Amino acid sequence: MEHGPVSLRVKVAAGPGADTQEVADATLRLRRELLNLDVVDVATLRAGEAPPGSRAVDMLAVGTLVVNLAEAQILPTVVATVRSWLAGSSWRRVRLELGGDVLDLTGVSSREQRRLADEWLARHAVR
Questions:
Q1: Among 98, 119, 121, 116, residue whose Cα is nearest residue 11
Q2: Could you tell me the pTM of the whole model?
Q3: Cα separation of the two ends of the chain
């Protein structure tokens, strides 16, 4: 990965029985945690204009954040924050995507998460 700005897509999902509002709430909690980092912005992805009478959450691409980083060096901190956030609930699942490369932190042990995250980060190491 080159030096400079990076845009990371983060998709939050929930386990069986979770509704759209629960996913939206969990996504906003993760967004708040990520905003505490040295990131440029953490935006919720919009699906388009809301039709008259619909709820705003309906038009969000529910569960999807775009994390904009000024420099790629903060990427490991972002991944560590996501992993820590995941540890707070067994039903949370997160998929990170950078340049078409996906890191899925779903249904794996903490040790396996670390290994997968380390391999993914190595592929995106700043050169």
A1: 98
A2: 0.81
A3: 6
